[in-house]
Each structure stands twice: as C-alpha cells, then as structure tokens.
Amino acid sequence: GAPVAIKIPFGESALVPGTMARFAREADLGRRVRHRNVVGVLDDGTTPGGLRYLVMDLAGGPPLRVMVDRAHALPTTWILGMIGQVAEGLHHLHGRGLVHRDLKPGNVLIEARPGGGARVRIVDLGNAIARDADAAGRATAAGQIFGTPEYVAPEQLRHGPIGPHTDLFALGLVLWELLAGVRPFDGDSLEIARHNAG
To answer: First CA to last CA across the chain, in angstroms?
Structure first.
C-alpha cells in the first residue's frame, strides 16, 4: 500500500487537557477530506496505553513558513500558483462543511513533484470545525482563540460566527506576507491579532 503518516501525542503534550478530544475531532473531520491539496485522515485508533493516534496521508516537503523565512523574495508566479492550490484545498474543505481556523504558512507543506513543480498540502485539522455544528460550536467561545494570533480573522477575536470567510481572511494574510515579505502588521502576536480585528 501507499506510505502513511501516524500522528500521536508525544511526551507532555499527551497530558494537556483536551488533547485527546482534539485528536478525536481531527479524526472525525479529517475523514471527510479527500483532496490532493489537503492531508486527510485515513484511520484512527487508541494505543494500549490509551493514547489516540491518527493514520494520515503522507505529506513530504517543507512548510511554507520555512520557505518564506529562507527566501528574500519568492517569484510572483510561484506565489500565485501556491496560493491557488491553497484556495483549491480550502474550497474542498468548505464544500465538505469544514472551516480550518488555523491557516498559516506553518500549516501549508510544499511537496516537490516528479518532473518539476510543487504541490501544496494543507495540514493540521486539529482546530477545524464543522459548519453543521450547533451555533455555540460555530462561534468562538468567550476567552478562547483557536488559531495562530497573527493569522486569526476578526470574528475569531470577537467571538463571532465562524465560516469560510474566516479561512479566506487568513489566506489573504498569507498572500500579503508572501508578496511583501513581511506580515501586514508589526508587533507581538496579540498586538498583531488586535490589528487584524480592526
């Protein structure tokens, strides 16, 4: 069969409250995904020691974050091609009723393809949410921010309804960073998040 990746909590992360519930949610939502630009979940289970694990599509290549940090300027045509593939992956997720909620350069892998070119793989559905969840689930609960502060949408900070627009906001921030070489706002994570919220 095809090679796979196994994701399992390691060390102290396995003891963090909510880790097992996060794995269960990622397994449930990840099974809905079958697209060339998104890493889905093929199977899941529990070890004899009680740890959840996920069997996933194998994705290789560095995260986009590494490429951004290494390159002074990436070619515009390459950037647009990669962003187009991310948009295709998001379109698939949204069509399956999912919102990623943590799109960022670190969650986008760039795989080299035989014969040249590259393929984008969106990873980490651990913060994803199903749009068919109840209203309380669709809104970010007060006091909680799911996602990386530099890339969160205003509704994530204001505890408003989450939807495809949430991921598209993050995609716009990623595109800005790729084209400009810097994030739209300076400061620490919370300052940047406040700028994003307007």
So the answer is: 49
